[in-house]
């Protein structure tokens, strides 16, 4: 945000569960995006496609995501997130 103290973001936190929903506003100002890339030591040329989205017209826009496993935990009362992961990953499980 312009006040340099806050960001346009939000989280929905659920007791005993954690973050259920997270959302934020995307940076639409190319000059601000370029300044952050430079401050982070990142090469702007590597992000040409992302920068072009801002250069050729963008509007302020936001998005959010819901943690599927945490939503299932909330609805079912399951206590451990490992018990609701539909496709668990563990050592030796992937063949590639």
What does this structure look like?
The structure is a single chain. The protein has a three-stranded antiparallel β-sheet. By secondary structure, the protein is of the alpha+beta class. The mean pLDDT is 90. It is extended and about 45 Å long. The longest helix has 10 residues. The protein has three helices and three strands, in the order ββααβα.
Indicate the topology.
Layout: E1 9-14, E2 18-25, H1 30-39, H2 48-55, E3 62-66, H3 68-76
Antiparallel strand pairs: 1-2, 2-3
- The unreliable regions are none
Please provide the count of β strands.
3
Number of helices: 3
Strand order of the largest sheet: 1-2-3
Biggest sheet record: 3 strands, antiparallel
Q: Provide the gyration radius in Å.
A: 19 Å
Give average pLDDT, whole number.
90
Whole-Å distance between the termini?
43 Å
Q: Work out the helicity level.
A: 25-40%
Globular, elongated, flat, extended or rod-shaped: what is the shape?
Answer: extended
